Amino acid sequence: MELPIGDRRTAVARRNGAAAGAPPTMTTEKIAERTRDKERNVSDIALDEAPARPIVGARARALARLGWFDAIFREATRAAAFVVLLLLGGVILSLVHGSMPAIRAFGLDFLTTQSWNPVTERFGALAPVYGTIVTSFIAMTIAVPIGLGVAVFLTELCPHPLRRPIGTAIELLAGIPSIIYGVWGLFVLAPFLQKYVQPAIISAAKGVPLLSSLFAGPPYGVGVLTASFILAIMVLPFIASVSRDVFETVPPVLKEAASGVGCTTWEVVRYVVVPYTRVGVIGGVMLGLGRALGETMAVTFVIGNAHKISNSLLAPGTTISATIANEFTEAVGDLYTSALVELGLILFAITFVVLAIARLMLMRLEHKGA
Amino acid sequence: MMSLYSSRRRANAIATTLCWGGAIFGLAWLLLILGTLVFEGLRGLSLDVFTQTTPPPGSAGGLLNAIAGSLVMTTLGVALGAPLGVLAGTYLAEYGRYTKLALVVRFINDILLSAPSIVVGLFVYTVMVAQMGHFSAISGVVALAMLVIPVVVRTTEDMLLLVPASLREASAALGLPRAHVVTRVAYRAAKAGLVTGVLLAVARVSGETAPLLFTALNNQFWSTDLNAPMASLPVVIFQFALSPYKDWRQLAWTGALLITVAVLVLSVAARAISHRKSQT
């Protein structure tokens, strides 16, 4: 989920804050000392009316209490920050621990075997890994151009009064839970594709060398292609809103200068906006890819859940997350459970790498902005 | 000269048309989804949905236990995750800021923010469900809290950084200890932002299905026992939508509509709060 705070604002705030990062603590102590000196003078004058000792005692106690609270609060926040680290460490450790039986039983064969047989307890991750990568790849090839188009539309072309409402609408859509897309895909998109689109594709691809095997077989409705479509629709608002935020970091002066020397809107986008934000756009796309790879519910409904790799994109398949979601509660036997956990570990490893690259790229853009 | 000009104009026309087309195409799909959702969901919306528990196949019923389960688990999950998230965010913005720990935590948190939620489900399963020996609502709560934390950490840090440093300096100049500067000044200045972060976290968590599938599981009956499986809207939708029964499928649509409305209302509220704040 992208938060409604632009990276730019953060960067600016960080810079403003930087100036005041360390000094306050020093000044606090100094000023506290100075006030204490002054207070002593005041209490000297006040001596006539009240004895000084009890006041000093109460003051010391109050200061000590404040000091305690200060220390406890600081350590509490530090501990909370450590908890975030521990969570990630815990996730990795528990996944590795849980998948040890499967790793011991299958070793590296796990990654290259296609068979997934709970009865004979032969498990291989090839089909789900293949499904995950293929669905995400197709989804990204559809969603990235359209998403970037929407972002360009929102930053350069859209009439001004409409920019905010449409931008907000897209951000809201990016926050809709994925199960909604899954239900819609199952009840609306899959039957529609099965009835109208897939037969047309199959007959059109017949006879064409490569396409005929890519789009072979009966129109099931559910399958790899349908899952890819749903994924594309789901990551589209996400990519659009991230890239819009990124495009908005381009200083208006640059765009105005380009327009000033006679560039068309397209040339401004092509030669100013895109080069300036390239790193950030790639980061945003990688974030979208991370979502698509790990997406569970939208895919589980429409992938068909078949543990085999077929040449045809219309055939049912499976992804890592769909396999886990469908089979985990029904898995009997340690090895079966463990194989599913190892699938989870693979998924986590893949998304971790993708997300880490995405974050590093977005951070580079942020530095540029600051 | 003229031909170069016209070719540039043509390229511009093609590109802008494509962008318009892409925007209309993309928005059309999303509107289509919302449209069908409202249409199909409203058809099954009645008072029974809120007063009856989930039915056995073939008979009428509602979603009462699922709605209650979602409310209970989301509330507890946020109650568990939000304070931790706020504290960690405070460390990143106020105390750590440039320390090694803060840099690492910031990076890790951003990754957790978009990590696949099903992996969180697996983690809680191995840590809690497998140890306890049975599925339980409390493990669902923990799974949801793990998804709340990164969202709240991120917004808390961002919002605290927006608080002008001069406010902190002024209160420090009055002799306030750092903890008071943070809790009495920075928190108050960033209050709207912090609320926004929590609301966003609620919105994010209320539709999560994957982490609940094998932690809280599902429950056909009314239950408030945290140590037993508990129904939740997303899991019920998952089960009912994939079933062959007509009543169940209708309930799945209605449940989907309820979740979407809840999430949209929460996000709009979050936006309204932070927007009003940023204008004053």
Low-confidence segments of chain B, ≥5 residues, pLDDT <50?
A: none
Secondary-structure element order of chain B, as H and E?
HHHHHHHHHHHH
The count of β-strands of chain B is 0
Relative strand content of chain B: under 5%
- Gyration radius of chain B (Cα, Å) is 24 Å
Average residue pLDDT of chain A: 83
Widest β-sheet, arrangement of strands of chain A: 1-2
Strand-residue proportion of chain A: under 5%
Number of helices of chain A: 14
Q: List low-confidence stretches of chain A.
A: 1-26, 41-48
Tell the overall outline of chain A: flat
Helix content of chain B: over 70%
Radius of gyration of chain A: 29 Å
- Please provide the ordered H/E string of secondary-structure elements of chain A: HHHHEEHHHHHHHHHH
β-strand number of chain A: 2
Number of helices, where a helix is a run of at least 4 consecutive DSSP H or I residues of chain B: 12
How are the SSEs ordered, and which strands pair?
The complex is a heterodimer of chains A (370) and B (280).
Chain A: H1 7-19, H2 23-46, H3 52-106, H4 109-112, E1 116-117, E2 122-123, H5 126-157, H6 160-174, H7 178-205, H8 209-214, H9 224-247, H10 252-260, H11 265-294, H12 297-300, H13 320-327, H14 334-369
Antiparallel strand pairs in A: 1-2
Helix pairs in contact in A: 3-14, 5-9, 5-11, 5-13, 6-9, 7-9, 9-11, 10-11, 11-14, 13-14
Chain B: H1 2-43, H2 47-51, H3 64-96, H4 100-113, H5 117-132, H6 137-162, H7 165-173, H8 178-189, H9 191-206, H10 210-213, H11 233-241, H12 246-279
What is the structure about, briefly put?
With 370 residues, chain A is an all-alpha fold. Chain A has helices at residues 7-19, 23-46, 52-106, 109-112, 126-157, 160-174, 178-205, 209-214, 224-247, 252-260, 265-294, 297-300, 320-327, 334-369; strands spanning 116-117, 122-123.
Protein architecture, described:
The complex is a heterodimer of chains A (370) and B (280). With 370 residues, chain A is an all-alpha fold. Chain A is 78% helix and 1% strand. In chain A, a hairpin with a 4-residue loop joins strand 1 and strand 2. The longest helix of chain A is centred in the N-terminal third of the chain and has 55 residues, at 52-106. Chain A is flat. The two termini of chain A are 24 Å apart. Chain B is mainly alpha-helical and 280 residues long. Helix content of chain B is 79%, strand content 0%. In chain B, helix 1 packs across helix 12 (246-279). The longest helix of chain B is centred in the N-terminal third of the chain and has 42 residues, at 2-43. Chains A and B meet through helix 1, helix 2, helix 3, helix 5 and helix 6 of A and helix 1, helix 3, helix 4, helix 5 and helix 6 of B.
